[in-house]
Structures are given as C-alpha cells and as structure tokens.
Specification:
Elements lengths: L2 H16 L21 E4 L5 E4 L3 E2 L7 E2 L7 E6 L6 E6 L5 E7 L7 E5 L4 E4 L2
Antiparallel strand pairs: 1-2, 1-9, 3-4, 4-8, 5-6, 6-7, 7-8
C-alpha cells in the first residue's frame, strides 16, 4: 500500500473522530431491519423527532437514508468546507450534526438525507 493511500485513510479517520462523523459501512446494527416500520427516528442527544421509519430507504451508501424529515425536526445549513458546497442537516432541538442532504432522482422528494447512524435513536411505533 502506498504512503499516499495510508495518509488519506488516516486523514479520513481523524476527521471522523474529531468531528464525530462516522465512516460508512462501519457497524451493522438492528436499525437496518426497521427500514419500513412505522416507528420514528429521534436525535440520539435530545430525543427530537427527526424522521419517520416509512420515509427511510436503502441508498447503498452505508448511512441511513431518508427522503423526508419530520416537520420542524431538522434545520438545513449551507456548508462550504473542503472546497465543496453541501447542505448540512442538524437537529433543530440541540443543533447536533446529523449528516448531509443530497439530490436523489429516485425518491418522491428528489432528496436524500444521508444521516450518521450514531446521531439516531429508533423508537418502534
């Protein structure tokens, strides 16, 4: 393995740890089997309702993905770090970083909320 690849991997790991971002495909949990349930995904810090279980879909990106958020549950903020323009998704209750919002042509809203699994707590409905 080249030194450049090792440095890149170490840099990504450091960012994940320092900013509390999680790497995709990191841990498989029970959350994956609730993709179409009627439960609710809450903020793991303040229990603010964020997403409904029936709005979750498999985007094959390694993170839980949703196509619609609970009204007033999240705030969207522009993010221009690393030379890219993105939309950051944060909890409206505690301002915790949840993930990012992307365009996605295969959803009813044409959007994909790509959310860090550690930011969510699932409550079965």
């Amino acid at each position: 393995m080249s030194t450049r690849i090792v440095c890149l991997k170490n840099s990504r790991i450091k960012k994940a740890r320092n900013r509390l971002y999680k790497m995709p495909f990191g841990h498989k949990t029970d959350m994956q089997k609730f993709a179409s349930d009627e439960g609710t995904y809450l903020c793991s810090s303040c229990a603010q309702p964020l997403f409904e279980g029936d709005k979750r879909f498999e985007a094959h990106c390694g993170f839980p993905s949703f196509w619609l958020h609970v009204a007033e549950g999240v705030e969207l903020k522009p993010l221009t770090s690393y030379g890219r323009i993105r939309t950051q998704v944060v909890c409206s209750g505690c301002s915790k970083h949840l993930g990012h919002l992307f365009e996605h042509p295969d959803t009813p809203t044409q959007l994909r909320y790509c959310i860090n699994q550690e930011a969510l707590k699932y409550v079965k409905g």
